[in-house]
Amino acid sequence: METLSSFLIPILNVKMLLLVLLGTFGGIWVGAIPGLSVTMAASLLISFTFSWDIYDAIALICGVYMGGVYGGGITSILLNIPGAPAAIATGFDGYPLTLKGEAPKALGLACSVSFFGGLLGIIVLLCAAPIISRVALQVAPRDYFLLAMMGILLLTSMGSGDTIKGIIAGALGVLLSMVGMDPATGEMRYTFGNVYLMQGISFVPAMIGLFGVTEGLSQARDVTVAAIKQNVDKIIPSLKLLLKYLPLSLRSALIGIWIGALPGTGGDIAALIAYDAAKRTVKKPSAPFGQGAYEGVIAPESANIAAVGGAFIPMLTLGIPGDAVTAIIIGAFIIHGLRPGPLFMVETPNMFGVIVSCLLIANLAKLIIAMCSIKFFTKVIDVPRAILIPIVIILSVIGTYAIQNSLVDVYWMLGFGVLGYFMRLYGFATAPMVLGLILGPILDSNYRRAMQSVNNDPIMFLRDLVTNPISLILVIFIAYMVVSQTPQWRRFMARVRAKARTNNA
To answer: What is the pLDDT confidence band of residue 132, given thresholds at 50, 70 and 90?
Structure first.
């Protein structure tokens, strides 16, 4: 009963309601600017709201969180420049839709399924948090290692149709992620005595460079080409279209919730896995994946926002952050004298109700604000390239510098931008490199932890992979992913489908 009454607090409190709306509006815009991440915004809000009442602070942060995750997909669709790592997969098909003049429809569809995914994530948070948290607690370092391996294998499908080039780009990203201080021994790796390499290479400047600067340099070759006319008459998707893609959105959202509930993962891995799952399960997409398939926008946008609800589950029930933003929210709780953990919902059930209510309001506000802003956002494409390209590069520089106030990051960003330009010239996709940079540290650290847990015995490590249920399921998935990429498997499936058609005839 106490939780129910606390659920109504943000709804009946005008100040909290306005703070959620303000946070959602600001989050959408912050998420849409490359480099200005939701994590950065949330960390700034901690110091800004230090003296506030905890309810007001949480209302603002929840709004920024929900709005920012969707906002990252806006520039990914319009300009092929993800505002956040969770929006990388959205651009695989979102940007080709923009090139077809369907940017408003893509944004409207992304907004609609994002609302559904967010709603499902919050419902699961409300109803099944204790159950999912107990399952997530059983996930060992070896399972995180296997998840990272799955992500690495997914890179093979992102090489612009060339598996080998996708693997090369991803492997280079993993290699670059190893630069800097070894997290286990403290030794320097691949620094060559350069002090600027000691902290490693951050994936955020790399992402901005490989997408933002690379896109700017690529478009500079055709600076006189007229902007593609966008069809702004079809923004709100029809009910028939939404119902058609509802099963895909549901599956992707469930993937997002599960991945989000695993401590330390987040929406970027969830979106990547959901995108690959869609490629493997959708038999007749609206267009080939990578060439403007609606399914390629629906899957990652459903997953990355559903991961928000999932990320709150281990935070509230175990005191373990699901991602970077929930780690910051834990800091806000501690500042205000609250300690998330197994007794959190028992000792402070009112706070649980307030968080769920704020997330629901933010999810609805995101839908309304985003739908009303789509026509404005699509005006960006109408800006002449001679003006747009310098603006994109300037924003990329500002966003990169704002991360750590470091010119070194700006140099890295520009260097990756030039590298990405030449990669495109020779048919190498840039997304695998960015994802390799993101997944490399997860792969490295969890492999080390897994080996340490078995006293560095490889036989014991392999035994655990096949005797633990979660690990065994992941191993089976990985085996399927490897086998399904072989020509023999494709020929076998072609024969099976041909036989099925013959029998049906």
So the answer is: low
Instruction: Quote the tokens at residue 1.
Output: 């009963």
Phi/psi region, residue 182 (left: phi>0; alpha: psi -120 to 50; beta: rest), is beta
How far, in Å, CA of 71 to CA of 83, rounded? 7
The mean pLDDT value for 84-95 works out to: 81
pLDDT digits (tens, 9 = 90+) for 288-302: 888 888 888 899 899
Beta bridge partners of 180: 189
**Among 490, 477, 492, 474, which residue's Cα sits nearest to residue 140?**
474
Buried b / exposed e across 212-229, counting CB within 10 Å, b at 16+? bbbbbbebeeeeeeeeee
* Integer Cα distance of 215 and 91 in angstroms: 12
Is there a contact between 136 and 261 (Cβ–Cβ < 8 Å)? yes
Measure the CA–CA gap between 81 and 72, rounded to whole angstroms. 9
Task: Pick the closest to residue 227 from 380, 108, 81 (CA basis).
Answer: 380
Q: Which two tokens stand for residue 234?
A: 């079809």
What are the sequence ranges of the domains in the chain?
A: 2-139+178-202+238-382
| HEC sequence for 226-295 | CCCCCCCCCCCCCHHHHHHCHHHHHHHHHHHHHHHHCCCCCHHHHHHHHHHHHHHHCCCCCCCCCCCCCH
Q: How far is CA 411 from CA 14, 151, 406, 422, 494, in A?
A: 46, 28, 9, 17, 49
Nearest one of 212, 266, 214 to 395, comparing CA atoms: 212
Rounded to two decimals, what is the model's pTM?
A: 0.74
In tens, the pLDDT along 267-282 reads 777 888 888 888 888 8
Share of the chain above pLDDT 70, in %: 85
Q: Which amino acid is at 221?
A: R
Q: Are 311 and 323 in contact (CB under 8 A)?
A: yes
Residue that wins the pLDDT comparison between 391 and 309: 309
